[in-house]
Structure formats: C-alpha cells, structure tokens
Design a protein that fits this description.
The complex is a heterodimer of chains A (132) and B (407).
Chain A: H1 7-14, E1 27-33, E2 38-46, E3 52-60, H2 63-76, H3 81-84, H4 89-96, H5 102-120, H6 125-128
Antiparallel strand pairs in A: 1-2, 2-3
Helix pairs in contact in A: 1-2, 2-5
Chain B: H1 5-10, E1 18-20, E2 23-24, E3 26-27, H2 38-51, H3 61-80, E4 89-92, H4 95-110, E5 116-120, H5 129-138, E6 141-145, H6 155-162, E7 168-172, H7 184-193, E8 197-201, H8 213-216, E9 220-224, E10 235-239, H9 241-246, E11 257-260, E12 265-267, H10 281-297, H11 299-318, E13 323-325, E14 335-340, H12 345-353, E15 357-358, E16 360-362, H13 367-372, E17 378-382, H14 389-406
The chains are: A alpha+beta (132), B alpha/beta (407).
Chain lengths: 132, 407
C-alpha cells in the first residue's frame, strides 16, 4: 500500500474544516467531473478590498477531490482575489503531498477549477483555465 | 467436462503481468472489456503477416484469401448466435454502432411522430441515447420499464406498457451494472403479440452464455467483440433478413453499393448494404478466433464457471463491513456492483489497484439507473472465464484495507 491515502487526506475527507454553504456569498460557482460524478460548489465572501474573508465548499466526491477542496479554501481565506488567480496545479499537489496520474489529477483540481471559474466569471472560463 | 482453469489462464499472457510491485494482476473488469487469449492475437497477426489485402475487390491471391477469411468469419459468428443466414450478420464497430444503425436507418423510416418506444431503466447509454436522439428528431414517445428494489425488471409494468401499442421494444439481455439476466424470450413473445419490433442489446450476454437468436425470435440483436475475448472496434448487428431488406442503408460509400451514377446509387444486397468502406478485416478474423476459443471451452461451461464465481463473491462480499451490494438478486451473471459507506468508488478502486485488483468505478455508462437508486457511482467487480476464487479473496482483502483506511 503506497501512501496515497495519507492521514492528512483521509482526515480532511472525513472531517473537513471548510465544508458548508455561505448565505451572503458574493461568488458562488459549481461544476462536476462527469467521469465520476464528483460535484463541488464553492461560496466566497469578499470585502471592499476584494479580499476573501470567508469560503466554504459543498458537494460530494472522492477523498482526493474533497480533501483538496478543503485544503485549497484554507489557503485562500485572507487572500485578495487577484492572488487566487495565480494558484497553480503545483500548489494543489503540494498541499496534498502526493503524486497523481492524469485521471485522479482531475479530481484533485476540480475545486481549483471551480474557484477560478467563480472568480473569472464563466465567460472567460475557457481562456483562463487552459493552464489548469 | 473438467473446467481446466489453469490451462485457460495460460492462454491469456496479460494475466501474468505484475501490476504493482509484488502484486500480480487480478482482473475483475471484464464487463468493461475482456482480456484476449494468445489464439486471438495470433489470428490477427497471421492475417497481417500472410494474408493482408483489401476485400471484395481485386482478384489476386491475397485479396481472395482475405475475402474468404472475412466472409468465413461472418459464417462462424452467425452460427455462434444461431442466425439462419450469414447475410443477417452485419459487421459494425461495436454494440453502440449496431444500435445506432437500427435507430438511424430502420427507425427513421418506420417510426412516425407519436409512435412509442419502450426501453427499460437499466439500459446503458448506448441503448438509450440513440433512441432519445431519434425521439427528438421524429417526435417519438419513450416509456421505461421500471427496475424494482431487487434489481429486476417490473414485468407487470412492461405488460401494461405493451397495451399502449409500442412500435419498438429495446432492452438489454443482461444488465452491465446489476448483472440481471432479463427474460428475453418471454419479453419478445409479449412484444410480438402487440406487433412491436424488438431489439436486444446483447453486449453482456453473448460473451457469457449461449445465445440463440432464432429461439429468442429477436428482430435485432447487437453485441461487441471486445467483451467476448475478441478485438476492440468490432461489433455485430443481427437482423432478420426481411427486416434488414426493408431497412435503408446506414453509411454511404464503397462496398455498400451495387451501382453508382452521378446523381444516384443502387444499394448492394445484404449484408454489404450496411458495410460501407474498407471494414475492420483483421478484427473480423480475430472475432472468429474468439468464437472458436469460447466454443472450444463451451458456453455452458463458461456460464457455469461464472455462476460459481458470482455466487462465491456474493457470499464473501456480503460479510464485508460497510458494503452494500447493488440489487439483491443473487441469480445473476458475473457482475456485482456495490457501494462502501462513506467511501467514494474512485477511492475504493484506487486502493484495490494498489494491490493489483482491477475493478471499475463510476456510473458504468448507466447514469439513470444510479440516479434511480440514489447513488452517484458504484464500484463494480465482474468475472469471466479466466477468473479464480482466489482473485475474489484478493478483492475482499483489498476491501478490508479500504475499511481500515477510512474507518
């Protein structure tokens, strides 16, 4: 058994810190991975300076997709929206601390895709999300 | 006859592969695609090495040999499912294309606005989407036979739907998720009483038990080679001669024509009318080799072996904690789909893969069926002629690891 399901991932999957919904969110966006039916919605609240003051995710999916969503939201709270735009695939992989094949990479990156789509707006989705 | 499992396994080179360090392959995903025996691989290689030529044209030796091999394959495959004539066997790319052929050619011509098609809730997407597309195009109605809690079709619902005078009934002989084997013969008799044409999706049945299309009295019967130890990219549509004769061609091009003028063409006779362009010749020959292989073992023996395996697996899996089998019916083909409480199927499959056990995770191209049971996705283990009870033990051990990690 490799350390794919390291304690951090299973723990975050079972006891997420940032799961839930925000009623007064300025941004709310959701998407799914049709391959496995993973579904993630992210709600954000920002202040006047466009700094994220609160973030929650909801939905269902595998341990990788749920844990990465939970870890991602932890690092974006307190950050300006502009800075979130520069979060990369590598950041997510560092947070998870594991190597992933192409199929599971999609699970890991679903939350980042949702978050960026929410911030950029759907119109710019294709252009801006190519690098994810 | 003694079922020589070791000898069978020795025919499949891939089964010797070490998938993860120290773990040989336990392949429990034959419902997605079956592994191929050396005999099938050799037959295709031999064609390319010694007989490769285009068929139905050219008079040189190779062209004649290739044509004879291709048409012999049709005879053999036709006899395998007990078709009356070889010309009732149409070669396609897969089950999906076979069903699309019927929808786009027969359906477009014979189904009129307001006509009813009866399907079932257990269909996989290939026996669902082509009819949805045709229904949109020709303003048809679709009705569905429901699946009950045990994972079997509600036949009383089916009988009521038949009273609405459907023009077509289309259903799977065996479910790729539940493993349920539907009472095809009885369903066809009932459908014919109200004058409906019947298409049977045989993707999961032809590989696993003996099918006799004449005894079933099916009007159309579709299946794929790759699930029956044959090559990918090759499928079959059986149709009764009179129905195929009345059906317009599907894809236009070479080989499907008798005569072509600038503004018109005259279609070829059966079966060539439905086979435009250079076909998958090596794959046809490989499929014939797959038929030889399965018949040498005997479909009854294969079915019995799978029945023993699924029974063994059903009992073993029933004792795994946090595990719920999809559909209670134990009288099924070699397929068991299940869910583990609070663990996503992708995580289950990933952990199983780490100990060399290959299963499928997802909705298995049957999203509506999962929706009905309120599950996004399941893990599926499926069994075929080469599987062993010790592979099922490895599955169960892998599931214990899942429980250890997640509980």
């Amino acid at each position: 058994m490799d350390d794919f399901y390291r304690e951090l991932i299973v723990d975050r999957y079972k006891n997420p810190q940032n799961k839930g919904e925000l009623e007064n969110s300025n941004f709310s966006y959701e998407d799914e991975n049709p391959l496995c039916g993973d579904h993630i919605r992210i709600d954000l609240i920002t202040n006047d300076q466009n700094i994220i003051t609160d973030a929650k995710f909801s939905g269902h999916g595998c341990a990788i997709s749920q844990a990465s969503a939970d870890l991602l939201l932890e690092i974006v709270i307190g950050k300006p929206l502009e800075e979130v735009k520069s979060i990369s695939k590598e950041t997510i992989l560092e947070l998870l601390g594991i190597e992933l094949g192409p199929v599971r990479l999609k699970c890991a990156l679903l939350s980042l895709k949702v978050l960026k789509a929410g911030i950029y707006g759907v119109g710019d989705l294709d252009h801006e999300l190519k690098e994810i | 006859m003694l079922y020589d499992l070791e000898k069978i396994r020795a025919d499949f080179p891939i089964l010797n592969r070490e998938i993860r360090k120290g773990y040989s392959l336990a392949y429990l995903d034959s419902t997605a695609t079956a592994q191929k025996p050396q005999q099938v691989i050799n037959a295709m290689n031999e064609y390319y090495q010694f007989h490769n030529a285009n068929i139905h044209r050219g008079v040189h030796t190779l062209a004649e040999e290739a044509t004879a091999m291709y048409e012999d394959a049709r005879d053999k495959i036709g006899r395998f499912i007990q078709a009356k004539y070889a010309r009732e066997i149409i070669f396609t790319r897969n089950t999906t294309e076979s069903i699309n052929l019927v929808a786009k050619s027969w359906g477009r011509k014979f189904l009129k606005p307001g006509d009813l098609i009866i399907l079932t809730e257990m269909e996989h997407h290939s026996n669902l989407v082509p009819w949805q597309m045709l229904a949109d195009e020709n303003s048809l109605r679709l009705e569905f036979v429901s699946v009950n809690e045990d994972g079997v079709l509600a036949l009383e619902v089916y009988k009521k739907l038949l009273d609405l005078n459907p023009k077509l009934v289309a259903f799977s002989h065996m479910s790729n998720v539940l493993g349920t084997i539907n009472p095809a013969k009885e369903m066809i008799i009932d459908a014919h009483k109200v004058g409906a044409i019947v298409l049977v999706d045989g993707a999961q049945s032809v590989p696993h038990f003996a099918v006799d299309v004449q005894d079933l009295d099916a009007d159309f019967y579709a299946f794929s080679a790759h699930k029956m130890v044959g090559p990918t990219g090759f499928g079959v549509l059986y149709g009764k001669e009179a129905i195929l004769d009345a059906t317009p061609p599907f894809i236009g091009g070479g080989d499907m024509i008798k005569k072509v003028e600038l503004h018109s063409f005259k279609p070829n006779d059966l079966p060539h009318k439905f086979e435009a362009g250079t076909p998958a010749i090596a794959e046809a020959i490989g499929t014939a080799a797959a038929v030889d292989y399965l018949q040498a073992i005997g479909m009854e023996n294969i079915a019995r072996h799978e029945h023993e395996l699924v029974h063994y697996a059903f009992n073993k899996l029933s004792s795994v904690e946090n595990l719920k089998i999809f559909g209670k019916n134990n009288n099924r083909g070699g397929v068991i789909s299940f869910e583990m409480a609070n663990v996503h199927p992708h995580d289950v499959a990933q952990i199983l893969d780490s100990v060399g056990v290959a299963v499928r995770a997802g909705h298995h191209c049957a999203m509506p069926l999962h929706e009905k049971f309120g599950i996004a996705a399941t893990t599926r283990a499926s069994f075929y002629l080469y599987n062993t009870t010790s592979e099922i033990d490895r599955l169960v051990e892998g599931l214990e690891i899942v429980n250890d990690i997640f509980s």
